[in-house]
Amino acid sequence: MENFRSRAVRSLAELHEQELKAFVVTWNRFVVSGKPLPEARGDADYESADRLVAHVQGSARSYLLWVWEVLERPIEGLPLIRDAGVIVPRLDAFMAETLDGWRRHLAPLEDAQLTPKQYISRWGEPHTIEQMLEHAVVHPMRHRIQLERILAA
Length: 153
Known about the structure:
Largest sheet: 2 strands, antiparallel
Distance between the termini: 38 Å
């Protein structure tokens, strides 16, 4: 992670990696526990533990791809995959590929690209690139904390 042009981006990439790995550790504990997920309430990502881990892992990759799409320099060779049937059987490898992509593809990002311009996220809300990277850090953290609460109950 030493070749990053932006210390801010490097820090966000490091935090994201820590949180994504911590989520998977907690998710594995959750699966072994046999405890149920919260009621789905129409959210397909809560239909099963596999769907939830695929949501978190697919989103991690999606955030990275979004950054370079909005900067009009799309990443090739790192497909956007959200299918639990593809992600779960090779979860560790999928996560390693995504995190490697974060390290390689975010290294050239410069501070001037982080703000102030906003772009529309995949879910329709405006974000600067820095806000999207921060969102990417918090996303697995939120799901990890939710699973930890279930495990503690």
